[in-house]
Design a protein that fits this description.
The chain is α/β, with parallel strands linked by helices. It is 41% helix and 16% strand. It is built from 19 helices and 15 strands. It has a 7-stranded mixed beta sheet, sandwiched between helices.
Length: 453
């Protein structure tokens, strides 16, 4: 019988993060100040982030050392296993060899702890007392609440109203770790009060919650802001996933032909694939690298590659990325972590340079793949992760037709234990597919800022 699970020792935990900026043929276009449209300097970001993270954001050094306290905290759940999907291969009748990296093994149940721990550490080191952040479905808020507790920081989470009402369990998890959670829009910020004045029953959005958390941090001396995706330093912290996976595939004696990850802001995809992207840019690999996004928010496959704001209230810096327009509000798909109008600048640049590819998939097809995966492999995937499974299954079925025994590896970014209401709907046949909203995207793209073009 073939080996199923590839595990590493604690001593094999990576000592450095991999910084893809070192290997990009062209430097990333600089972020611009939201008011002036001029390139940002470190001083502009200092009210929001600790200096070490600002340095990492623009660093072009290939390897950045992981501080010892961060490695110690990682050891609570890392290294995570790489698992050969032997049972799903059998269920599909494919000659392909399928592997998945299991990031749901973390305390919060997703990959997000990899950066939450690092961000909490640097904040603590530089004297921050309190961190403010936003959360959509609650995965990022949970990861940061746990990390803040580990490093003895206060944590305030602006949780998108609709999730706050519909998904109380994530809120309770955050509160258990001592975080203060409010529904966004809230009465605690100008951005929140303005949104409530316009619509007292606003369901909120991730973009608006970002505006609130940024305002909170910018207006308080003791507080910094923390973001769970999109930024270069966040993507870099996630590369522990791919660095481990690369070692584990070596143990398995396989080199990947296809690497797959789902993308919301791009962090788990980047974390899993960037070490392999580095190999590809340096001529050591020819693997296809595929980012999977939802049809309801298809920023890479249907958006424009241009400068846009990261949030709805236009408070964040302008970054060059694939965007559907900062005013675009994605349909309420159950993969809440993928409902974002933009994409990480590094992922966008690699897609633009055709180093990586992107595909968009529908909601029902992702839940079909998730159920097939759960029934064969035994793990219940997050709806976000199910996007990666869908494309892994499609690739494996193509191998079945062609008789090719490709090596397919995907990142299983988290578990779906807080998403059972969505599974219940799927089982009852009640899930909707949302067509690509061409007219809404066209309208939102009209609102793009006229800078840097
Ligand atoms: C947040 C989240 C995502 C999407 O965010 P990325 O930054 O694109 O990785 C995907 N999967 C899970 C389980 C998440 O919690």
């Amino acid at each position: 019988m073939a080996q199923r699970k590839f595990v590493l020792d604690e001593k094999d935990l990576p000592t450095h993060w991999y910084n893809v900026q070192a290997d990009l043929k062209q430097p990333l276009p600089p972020p611009l100040h939201p008011g002036t449209g001029q390139p940002l300097g470190p001083a502009d970001l200092a009210p929001l982030f600790p200096m070490e993270l600002i340095k990492q954001e623009v660093s072009r050094e290939r390897w950045i050392e992981i501080p010892e306290p961060v490695r110690e905290a990682y050891k609570v759940w890392r290294p995570t296993p790489l698992i050969r999907a032997l049972s799903m291969e059998k269920a599909l009748g494919t000659p392909a060899r399928i592997y998945y990296k299991w990031e749901g093994a973390s305390p919060s149940g997703s990959h997000k702890g990899n950066t939450a721990i690092a961000q909490a550490f640097y904040n603590k080191q530089e004297g921050t007392k309190r961190i403010a952040t936003e959360t959509g479905a609650g995965q990022w808020g949970s990861a940061l609440a746990i990390a803040a507790r580990m490093f003895d920081l206060e944590c305030k989470v602006y949780m998108v109203r609709i999730s706050y009402d519909q998904k109380p369990y994530r809120r309770i998890l955050m509160e258990t770790f001592g975080a203060q959670v409010v529904a966004s829009p809230s009465r605690d910020t100008n951005a929140g009060r303005a949104a409530l004045a316009k619509d007292p029953h606003s369901a909120g959005s991730l973009g608006l919650a970002i505006s609130e958390a940024v305002e909170d941090a910018a207006t308080r001396e003791d507080t910094k802001y923390s973001l769970g995706s999109v930024l270069n330093h966040v993507l870099m912290h996630q590369t522990v996933i791919g660095l481990e996976a690369r070692k584990q595939l070596e143990l398995a004696g396989d080199a990947p032909d296809v690497l797959i990850g789902c993308v919301g802001g791009g962090s788990n995809f980047a974390g899993f694939t960037f070490p392999f992207v580095g190999d590809k840019l340096n001529g050591r690999s020819k693997a296809r690298i595929i980012a999977v996004e939802p049809m309801a928010a298809p920023s890479v496959t249907k958006g424009e590659y241009t400068y846009d704001f990261g949030d709805e209230a236009m408070l964040t810096p302008l970054v060059k990325m694939h965007t559907l327009g900062h005013g675009f509000m994605p349909a309420p798909i159950h993969a809440g972590g993928l409902r974002y109008h933009g994409m990480a600048p590094a992922v966008s640049a690699l897609a633009d340079a055709k180093v990586i590819e992107a595909v968009a998939v529908h909601q029902r097809a992702t839940f079909e793949a998730a159920t097939l995966f759960a029934r064969s492999e035994g793990w219940l995937p997050a709806p976000e992760s199910a996007h990666a499974i869908r494309v892994a299954v499609d690739e494996a079925l193509r191998c079945k037709e062609s008789g090719q025994a490709k090596v397919i590896a995907f990142n299983l970014s988290g578990h779906g234990h807080f998403d059972l209401a969505a599974y219940e709907k799927h089982l009852a046949g009640g899930l909707e597919d949302f067509e690509y909203p061409a007219d809404k995207v066209a309208a939102a793209l009209k609102g793009l800022p006229k800078v840097g073009v």
